[in-house]
Amino acid sequence: KAGLKKRTAPFTEPGSLTRIVAVASGKGGVGKSSLTVNLACAMAADGLRVGIIDADVHGFSVPGLMGITQAPTRVDELILPPVAHGVKVISIGMFVDGNQPVVWRGPMLHRALEQFLTDVHFGDLDVLLLDLPPGTGDIAISVSQLLPGSGLLVVTTPQSAAAEVAERAGAVAKQTGQEVLGVVENMSWMDLPDGGRMEPFGSGGGELLAARLSKTLGVDVGLLGRIPLDPRLREGGDSGRPVVLAAPESAVSLEIRRIARTL
Ligand code: ADP
Questions:
Q1: Which of 138, 179, 182, 225 is the most buried (most CB within 10 A)?
Q2: What are the GO MF terms of this UniProt record (predicted)?
């Protein structure tokens, strides 16, 4: 992006110019991981240096969504993250056996995240995205402690019940002092072949969440965008080529690319 200055300090330090965006949700299945990888690919396509830390330890899915099968390489004490679609990616999933469940508890997760931040050689980054686990767990607190400059992006569906659980994930910022960058509503509607539009999850969740977080946090939290349902988004995840790259001119991709430029 024009005018972006080079980083002057590692992103764990206060002087860092790396934009750190932690993507949060109240519950699973709302599209948090899909949004994370698509935002990252959109930013990389815009010429930014982008990294992702998949911190969704119990449901890590970023390597699959990015089409990464290779393991990180080690050089002395450093871990070199695999690169896909121009994005550097590290995930707990790269350090466990196949589909084994991750049974680590809080302190171990904190140490794993700490190690990702210190031992993984990301180099200079313009943006670091973190895919947080759903809810308000230990990792969200660890992120705020290890990366106090990180901002939260909260994802919800239009369903009011979903927006209510997402509010708790966003309200964590009140305790951690993190900035809430905004709300993204996903699965907002579906365009039908006959030209009509369907709203399978209802409407208004994104606006409701933004209004409630604004009230709780006492600052203006905006609804940054509304992303439609599109089977191509799911297919992009299944094939490891995110929809913003596979179908860049689709409505879903145009909206994600627009949101990426506001962050
Ligand atoms: P989360 O990270 O919140 O658990 P995922 O990103 O894994 O959610 O998405 C859950 C499922 O919904 C995935 O199968 C994904 O492909 C699908 N999905 C998410 N957003 C959309 C969308 N806008 N259109 C179509 N499918 C979507």
A1: 182
A2: ATP binding
Mutate to test the pocket of ligand 1, among 234, 252, 257 (most ligand atoms within 8 A of CB): 234
Q: How far is it, in rounded angstroms, from Cα 158 to Cα 160?
A: 6
What is the domain count for the chain? 1
In the chain, DSSP finds a helix count (H) and a strand count (E) of 9, 11
Domain limits at 118? 19-262
Q: Is residue 9 part of a domain?
A: no
Q: Global pTM?
A: 0.93
In the reported structure, the alpha carbon of residue 30 is separated from the centroid of ligand 1 by a whole-number distance in angstroms of 6
Q: Is residue 232 in contact with ligand 1, taking CB distance under 6 Å?
A: no
Out of 34, 130, 233, mutate this one to test ligand 1's pocket (max ligand atoms within 8 Å of CB): namely 34
pLDDT, one tens digit per residue, over 156-180 is 999 998 889 989 888 888 888 899 9
